Records
---
Amino acid sequence: MSTEVQEPIVAPGYDNESVTRKITDVVLTRPVHRGWLGGFAIAFLLLMMFNYAVAWLLYKGIGVWGVNIPVAWGFAITNFVWWIGIGHAGTFISAILLLLHQDWRTSINRFAEAMTLFAVACAGTFPLLHLGRPWVFYWLLPYPDTMGMWPQWRSALVWDVFAVGTYLTVSLIFWYVGLVPDLATMRDRARSKFLQLIYGVLALGWRGSARHWKRFHVAYLLLAGLATPLVLSVHSVVSTDFAIAIVPGWHSTIFPPYFVAGAIFSGFAMVLTLAIPIRKYYHLEDFITIKHLENSAMVMLATGLMVAHGYLTEGFMSWYSDDKFEIYLTLNRMFGPYAPAYWLLVTCNVIVPQAIWFKRIRTNPAGLFVIALLIQIGMWTERYVIVVTSLHRDFMTSAWAIFHGTRWDWMTLIGSLGLFATLFFLFLRVLPAISISEMRDLVHKKAKAAA
Amino acid sequence: MRANPDRPAVRPYRASRAHMNNQSPTTDHQSPALHGVMAEFTQPEQLLSAAQRAYAAGYRKLDAYTPYSVEGLAEAIGFCKTRVPLVTLIGGIIGALTAYVMQWYSAARDYPLNVGGRPLHSWPAFVPITFELTVLFAALAAFIGMLWMNGLPRPYHPVFNAPEFKLASQTRFFLCIEANDPRFNIDEARQFLQGLNPINVSEVEK
Amino acid sequence: MHSRSDAADMGQLFRKRANAIARLTVVGIPLIIIGVSGCFYAFARSSFWTKVDAPVEQPVPFSHKHHVGDDGIDCRYCHTSVENSAFAGVPPTETCMTCHSQIWKDAPVLQPVRDSWQTGAPIKWVRVHDLPDYVYFDHSIHVNKGVGCATCHGQVNEMPLTFKTQELYMRWCLNCHRHPQQFLRPKSEVVSMDYRAPSDQLTLGQRLLKQNNVHTAGLTDCYTCHR
Amino acid sequence: MVDQQHLKPLAEDGFFSDDRGSRVPPAHTVARGQLRDDEQFYTGKIGSDLAATFPMPVTRELLNRGRERFDIYCAVCHGYTGNGDGMIVQRGFPQPPSFHEQRLRDAPIGHFVDVITNGYGVMYSYASRVAPEDRWAIAAYIRALQLSQHAPASDADPATWQNGRARPPGAPKSDSPRNSDGRPSGRPLPPSTND
Amino acid sequence: MDGLAVGPYHRVLMTDAVSPVIKRWQTRALIIGVIAAILSFIGLFLNRPQFFHSYLFAWLFWSGLSFGALVLVMMQFLTGGLWGLAVRRLSIAAFMTLPLMAILFLPVLLGLHDIYGWSNGARAEAEGYHHKAQYLNAPFFTARAIIYFVMLTVFGVALRKRMAEHRDVRAIPALSAGGLIVYVLCMNFASTDWVMSLDPVWYSTVFVEVFASGQFLAALALMTALLVLFTYQFSLGDAVPVKAFHDLGNMLLAFVIFWAYVAFAQFLIIWSGNLPKEISWYLPRSSGGWQWFALALMLGQFLLPFALLLSRTAKRRPRSLAIICIVIVLANVLMNFWFVAPAFHPRVYVHSLDFTELLAIGGFWFALFFHFLKQRPLLPIELTEEHRNA
């Protein structure tokens, strides 16, 4: 095994009381700070822009976006895939790393799960808006409707509804179950009657009984076990939205695992984007240590390489297939009208992450922050390239066209960042951003191991 | 009331009102006003050994309250098997059957529709949703089953009457011998718990 | 048992009855969701929403009961294009005036008809059966394959003011498109208002399917009705 | 979706001042396939004279069609037997002449087509309701009605008459039973080969 | 061995006690291998094409174990974990068979014309084959195979050497990471060369993952089964902690799911697309009786192990874990057979050469495996440390 000195995953010197205080104080006693207020204000303004863009879209119809035939899927589906991919890291951290006994996950799982929820919420809006008539979204659900119709089960778009719906529900349950003991802590530490009641209701009367803990623990592990294949399935199903169509550039069997890897890749980039400022701002360096950043970076590197392998396989197979449409598509991506986007994604997703090989870079928060941002841009661009370049050249040259996002496209995309950030800012103010009960357990174990 | 870490660790014994009202709690251990006797510890190991000793002493209606999951504690108070996995499994099976039967019925029976020449009973296409609903139902079953078996939500519970019980969700570890234990005798129980070296023993009214 | 302040001091945040409220809430919320969806479901099927059995106000209170039931005028006298086009045809004012230039020619109720005849401005009849525009519905094929007028429009000969007797939901269309043999009649009986299905309707229906060349296989395909 | 940007037939539309979505073709225009160059067929006249002959062969099929159309459009006034005692007449509409008048028995066949097309007296034109082909069919059926009341015995084959398989001339034609008011009771018409 | 006053773990370290037994097994494996090889060689003259068809299948299975073992070791070095530690020594011995598998690749090259339709170049001029002709030709095919084997053997030997001599161990994670990248690149092309090109029309971008995860799964299952065998054979007692078996069981579960996932993803996408160039792989493999093989594969390499591995008891009881592992290994044999045989026979066809050649290569494989195994202790020293900590 590696003989390198292991960075600690929680700084020494903490006990139950100090862990509890440090985490709950962020919510309960810390006054609203100018930094939080400023950030929230910006996020909220962006959210208002999002609402404005959506209201206009609903009023006018999706023609305000740049989509048309043949590029019927533009920003909306790109954003959808991007956001839902970001969500994956949360589940990966909270579920898979739990099953793998990776205890460094403890201090980041809560906010990573929150990130999942908010990202899925952002993601969910886009296919709904793209329906054209979002108000009849319930037609996607199987119920004995007045049409006598059922959803078309052979359509990946219906699979998507179930996959994303299940993902959101299970993530929410998983998150809430983990929160219940912490809500009880908040209830017991809150000073005002109002907060006590709010947290008290949400805590469901949790009293920390040993029997309860036992069932809680089993249920939590089971939920983790259930969430694990869900991580694989959700982005796989999203990928089949593309892959089961016979559009060159979409119809590729590697799409499911390749999308999953890309999802975790961009998700960890988002984790870092959030964790690095949060730990600094709230002085949580003792809980979110360099070790966490480094491990996340390693996951990013590994998944980045998988994504790179996907690009390679696609390129090789299109050549090997000897199919003129496949070959044309690949060349068109590289050298066609969208070539800058393609090379941007290659730079951001393949070249930039290689910096993580260097220990000096992967232990440097600022450096990682930049890399993470670039990866997020790269992964958005990747989905953009997949969606747009595959569509803009049809089999028939008469149907060729060029797609550009309109300002409404851009407003919805940037506005969705505002939605995400607003939810996240609120989350930081009202809920413990780190699992207190798990941290207590961890601190106790580390103290015992050290003794 | 906010927990104060600087507060002295031991507080004087404070008789509950229930005890004062009832002249002979020792003879009437079925007293409806008494939930049990509660001891408070600072370390999980202390609680664990206290629980084991209480169980060994023959107490069965025991419960322990901790701010985090302490390994082996549930077993120490005689709670070994939980049916949460079974419920989850049943939920998963129901989910899988629901999903598959729903798809088969609607696509192959109720509205057979030829789409692209695919068979009406397109099992490969039915797999994703079957999987998703299996997970969804199993997760819901685990969640609801866990809450149900734990008797939650239950905002009011007698143990919250115990002094300092707010710390059970923060720093302290509690052991409660409940009054409905057939062996329960308030004085004995109090004496027994005092012998375990707690920082505090109190009676908990209902 | 104890006062509120006492409870707060001891950490007891809720009263005992909070337990009942909590359980009620947990059970109640799903029930409310189910109930509300059920209400929507029932509403979408109610005649209030579908306008079934609700007579429609018209510029002239035209009575099918009088014209069809009492006078015995054939459907096609006014709805001339029903047999050979998608649209059954709403009669022009000229059709009304064919008779009402001579009878009831001073009736106040017919004033709009006479106005229309004089000015040339059409009478603005209110559509009773309005299918969504994405439905490709053709009267002629139905009439020529043996679907009676009354099967969809009800006993028009008994309607003083016209109303829908069917909700016209797609589910209802499919009801016949899946099993047309349950509804077909001999072609000579299509416009009859007095026809009653025989007891061996299914045998008759099977025979009519063959006789009228009805291909059931494609009847529920999407493109049969949506083009 | 439910209301798309296209017009249903006869739907209201505000584009023109009369709110009509469906437009009347401008005068002197001919729609594709509607060039009416066969004078006899479309007007029932040859030059200024009423046509005495049919522009098509008179078949049983044509007669059946004529009967069906007659029952729809004509019988309301003229009665099912052509006596001029239709239901609307009973309601107060001026009684039209019976088809069994000698004047009408003698009228050339084009007369009936002309009347259907252009109207006559208080009778409105039925051109918009009855297609040209059907006008001839109705005319043929009117002839059949007239014959049913006034056929010379010589028209019948004496052999069949004597065998009782055909009715003597002047006997009521009753191969389709009728109700007391003269409306068909719903029995199907005799099948024709193409039905 | 009994009566020694040392703990069970020290017994394992004493290779002197263990190695005679393993040496006996080595001899037996070699005898089986030689006998089966002679029988197969006779078959070469009786049915030359069948000899090579069977050979490819047998070779793919055994070489897959070697490759899979290499991946197993490299992954363990990178991510740690008790599961990999317990089977690390076994896996190192297993991937040391790579040079042998390279030599045993020669018959495939000799039988190129009997196996691969593209090798005679007949369709090179046809539409859709221009690139394939550039890629699929005997010299390039041979050169690629040499590259795969040389590169991966170099990584394997370097890893083993560093472990054995405890030098430059700091480089091991980097070496493993590099090795995994090289492995994936190699398999990317190797899976195309060896299996995908059996049907020269067909291409599937995810096939490399189906292929590679199959290799890993087979190696992990075999190593686990052998670990259980040794635990009982050498009375290791609790030298291998129960948790290690539990973790191995979880790992098997994860990879059973992963294999099923990629295999199904490929099937679903090709089934949905239904394009002639793609469905051509599944049509012969789902008709003429081969569909029963597919079904058995679905059961043996997914449903059955999946259902059994969900049980905590099954994972913690070494014997039941071993039975599950044997099911997986057998299913893997079936998978390779199902990959290869339907390319030559539209109807189910099993030849005795399929068995003799499987035994022949297997005999040699095991002989070499035991040869390397007996040189070093069965369990790595870290296992006791982990054990003590746990």
---
Amino acid sequence: MIAFWVLAPVMVVAAVAMVMARKAVHCALLLAVIMISLAVLYAVQNAPFLFAVQIIVYTGAVLMLFLFVLMLVGVDSSDSLVETLRGQRVAAVVLGLLFGLLVVVALSQATLGTVVGLSAASEQADGNVKGIAALLFSTYVFAFEVTSALLITAALGAMVLAHRERLTPKPTQREMVAQRMRDYATSGVHPGALPNPGSFARHNSVDTPALLPDGTPSELSISRVMRARGTVRDVSRDRLTERGIETETRQIEEGER
Amino acid sequence: MSATPFLILSALLFGVGAVGVLVRRNAIVVFMCVELMLNAANLAFVTFSRQHGNFDGQIAAFFVMVVAAAEVVVGLAIIMTIFRTRRSASVDDASLLKY
Amino acid sequence: MTAHTSTLASRLAAEAFNKPDIDYGKLSPLLIVFGVALVGVLVEAFAPRDRRYVIQTAVSIVGLAAALAAVVVVGLNVQSNHGGASLGSVEAMGAIAVDGPSLFIWGTVLIFSLMSVLLFAERQLEGGITAFAGQAAALPGTEAEREASSRGIEHTEVFPLMLFAIGGMMLFASANDLLTMFVALEVLSLPLYLLCGLARRRRLISQEAALKYFLLGAFSSAFFLYGIALVYGYAGSFRLGDIDTAVSSTVGGNGLLLAGMALMAVGLLFKVSAAPFHAWTPDVYQGAPTAVTAFMAACTKVAAFGALLRVFYVALGGVRWDWQPMMWVIAALTMAIGSIVAITQTDIKRMLAYSSVAHAGFLITGFVGAQQGIEVAGQQISSLQAVMFYLVAYGFTTIGAFAVVTVVRDAGGETTHLSRWAGLGKEAPVVAGVFAFFLLAFAGIPLTSGFTGKWAVFTSAWAGGAWPLVVVAVLMSVVAAFFYVRVIVVMFFSDPVGDGPTVAVPSILTTITITVGAAMTLLLGVVPQPVFDLARAAGEFIR
Amino acid sequence: MTGSETAVPWLTILALLPVVGAVVVLLVPKGSALPKLVALGFSVVALVVTVAMAVQFDADGGFQFVEQYNWIESFGAHYAVGLDGLGLVLVLLTAILTPVVILASWHDADGGRWSANSFFGWILALEALSIGVFAATDVFLFYVLFEATLIPIYFLIGGFGGPQRSYAAVKFLLYSLFGGLLMLASVVGLYVVSAGNEGGSSYLLEDLMATDIGTSTGRWLFLGFFIAFAVKAPMWPVHTWLPDAASEATSGTSVLLVSVLDKIGTFGMMRFCLNIFPEASRWATPVVITLAVISVIYGALLAIGQQDMRRLIAYTSVSHFGFIVLGIFAMTSQGQSGAALYMFNHGLSTAALFLVTGFLISRRGSKMIDDYGGVEKVAPVLAGTFLLAGLSSLSLPGLSPFVSEFLVLAGTFTVSIPAAVIATLGTVLAALYILYMYQRTMTGPVRPSTAKLPDLRAREVVALAPLLLLIVVLGFFPKPALDALNPTVDRLLQQVGMEDPQPTVASEEGGS
């Protein structure tokens, strides 16, 4: 009872915040709040088995999978993938509010009668878990068995979409070296390692290009991906002018004296 | 306790989830909103189960969880594929990245 | 409602746990399909790569044929109830209704699946490999993808996935409780989501199709689920029969029931791609590999209509007056949107997708008539028979039409842009002629199955008092005819652009599919009576 | 209404003959004269069979050559065929015109995008379907064949002819489909209405005639049928597809379209609208008569203004169909006998007119009247046949259309004097448009461009001769045709429940 009135506002606020949150990770965390609160509500409503399953399966597995994928695709990802219609946003909100209102009214108008409660059923079945099991393995046994098809499909699907078979044997160190030398012989490609990113006083992360002796940034010192994404740090402003260097050198020298 | 407050809460969550699906554009967030809707349905199932005094509703909630787990796997696999494709669309060969 | 709980409580008391009583013989078609799917998974795990294609194709075809044979055997042995009003019995502890309509739909789905398997297995069009991605995990346009392609690697997992989908469809149409129906819905949907994203060519739009289908599909199944929850709240049970009892024992409408009904309708109408829940159809049909599109268009529609009719006739038949107006509007809207938007399409697959939306509208027109078998006299057809016949007729034509789409190609794969079909009639008169024939069937020209089907659903609607809807349907048929005719004009009376389309010579597999599709389209147009007899023999849904 | 069963399935044979012919034509090698010869051969055999059958026809015997089998039991549909006088006359018309058209269109399909095989194949298919339509005594069968005729004619218009043919074909098809699908709604309605009958729904004409259809339902269903037939006929204001189609198609196609296919519209009105919906037919009479009179005048006026000869003839047909509909809905025995006969005569005269202008156009390569002049001096035979065909079209006494037009007007006069008077005005206008066209093309000084026009060839003369011969013979001696038609018309009027205001013997006036 108290649990409900405490949790219900939290859940609604979390749900609204989830829809509004800009970062996907925040959404996932808010969803976790809702799910755990739900688990408590299940416990309140004589469903201890579901309480456990909700925590273990939903919060523990499903939500973690979400977070896992979020980490994979990039935490701050906000790619727009679903092509939505223009002006749909407002319509969606209005429709959603209307719908919510309708269901709420329908529910509050509905003559539900008295709550029977599960104590009788639990008693007869010798406990909640046993009651569920009896039903699951008799009345709903076929549906239960068919869910195995779902799980196999899921496994198969994940494998098809994510598993990449190696078609060529992985080149050994020796082969790679030989290939590199051949490249050098035929096209003059530098056989050694590519230059490291720049290590400077202010930056030494991978997005900072190293500077060549003439002061221009080295293209090779930065991953192509970052260049393509345009996330390479611009070092031209960090670079001091020649005169600046002279002044600085002098100051240092003078300082040393 | 009467079932009505639980049901209204469930309807609210469901509605918020539905709006979220329509409003958000990030596929993962959209999918999370769908999960919210499924959870709302589960709350209704459990509440009605108590209302009617039989376990069928709880069984339903259990099935929904199983189904949702499978759905999440498939859905996230599809979303992952798309994300990878899109990301690499600007870089034509992932295997030629810096070694 | 309280009466229910007491019976349930006593049941629980009497049988703390009773061993489930399942007649495996009667469920054999379902079990065979799922079993064969599992065999397919094992083949993936253990068979060497270069043999998988042959094994998978053979296993799928043999398995589906065996399931079809099982349907026939079960069908010959069903008992009749209530003086022949319905056939069959409720099996698997009340979860599955093995009745006449179920068997009819099982048979239909299996036949269409057999035709689709042949399309799935087609290898000649892509030069020795199937139309599915060689390595779905390899990024499009990369060296890895090209390598997979050049080595002739192909995803034979599509066969078990397809079999799971077929099993789900069969279960969906025969589920006797809402929970089983929901599980079946997911079992049929998940493999389809995956299959959509596995095109070998144009992988980006294929993946996008998969994502769209998945997100919207999950969205709609959430609605379906919430609807189930509300109906459960109303009736206290998931059994369709119990819901019917609850509906007929209470006087007056109930908010819970109406809201639940509406939400369930959303989920089901999404699957049959009825407006306004059709938004996914064009994108998905266009993006998915054409073989998958053919499979989805025919089989999903059959299964989804089976489930729709079962839910609304069996469980909600008592509140027919509440849902009929809603369905009137949906039917009219679906026909209108499907037909009118199709006019502006320039892509064949997209156009066929909108046409499938329009046909969903015609099917719903037949469905709203809601003429039960006992209400019609003599040789007249009931709504169920009309809809089932239409599904059979539409399925053959659709698979045939999509199969034709797979053989019209250029260097970049299938050419689906309408302008590229110009002059096809000169280039390949037979292929163009067959496609024109399919289009005429879609348009409902007599002597094709499309006409008899339309006639049947229109009669059913009119007999049920929905004659204004029939008039709307007729007007929309004219609009629809316009865009079908436009394609015929392009094919036969326009000059080819550039090199014009070429028609690849398919292997015997696709040829069989096209031939069967065309032959059945003609046969059902000229001698439809055997199928009507079969539908009549199937009787009504069991309660 | 019941007829006698027949030992020989004449009608099935008759309908199958051209189908077999069409298949054979498609199979024979392309590029030779062989497909044409085969097509001609089959159509002549069909004509012979038709004549052999017609000889056995007993004018007072009701429906004859009846065959009836269950087809689709769930729909109450039957394969039921049989001929009464009206059907026989129209089957005969189809059988006569097909070989004529094949002969006249000998070279029309050469050098096009599509082979001559398909052209003649479609023509034979069309013949088969048309015979089926005129013979069907089951509404469902009729509807199926009625719609199926669209396919061959669509490909005939769209595949062969002028530059705008594709547009014309689509326009034609959409108009027809619109009408046809409205009719489908009515056909479906009939099924539902007849469901209450003993033995369930049936589409047999005789069963439907015995069915009691409620007044308002009957009127709605009647509308569905009537609009479809009006589009087909074609009547004002749904006639606009005809000029386009006739102008773009080859003259052979135009003949089949106007002389045979459009008759299905008026035939359907008599056979189905009046028989099944007698009450609704009476109810609609004033409106229909008004529309018919408008068609008569409108068609004639527009014909006068045409530059394109084919369009001109198309508009004359609109006018003539106005007469036919007027005769049908006058609901007098004279009017209906006249209308029925008019269908046959109009078929002959319009066919002759289309073919002659077709020959002319193929010589000069232009459809425009202004491009011609003084043709009678360089090609007298052509000009002569043109004149004869034209005169028959304007219903000159002594030529067959006169008899029918006179009967229609006489029949109308007894019911509605204003309608008869206005329609008579149409005959005056007819003289105007025909003679005006003749004057501009055939008389006057010879134009340089027409100076070298060759006269009709032997093949063309052979094609035209039977038509002109029939026009003249039936002009003086229409009795056999009227004898065949009168009993049919009498039964029809009985079914509609109308009686002639003043009993007259139609066949006597015909001879005058």
